[in-house]
């Protein structure tokens, strides 16, 4: 799914030292997951970690 792919890409950015891009993508993904899945969904929680 698109949100999982975005989360994985953000993790890859983080691992590659592309911190600013990782943070921006994590924030965008979290906001979208909260909107689409709700704040208590396991996928939303995974993005917060």
From TrEMBL:
It holds the Pfam family TPR_10. InterPro entries: TPR-like_helical_dom_sf. It comes from Saccharothrix algeriensis. This is Tetratricopeptide repeat protein. The lineage of its organism: Bacteria, Bacillati, Actinomycetota, Actinomycetes, Pseudonocardiales. Signal peptide: none annotated. It comes from the Bacteria.
């Amino acid at each position: 799914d698109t949100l999982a792919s975005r989360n994985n890409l953000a993790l890859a950015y983080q691992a590659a030292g592309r911190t600013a891009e990782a943070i921006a993508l994590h924030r965008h993904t979290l906001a979208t997951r909260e909107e689409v899945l709700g704040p208590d969904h396991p996928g939303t929680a995974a993005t917060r970690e």
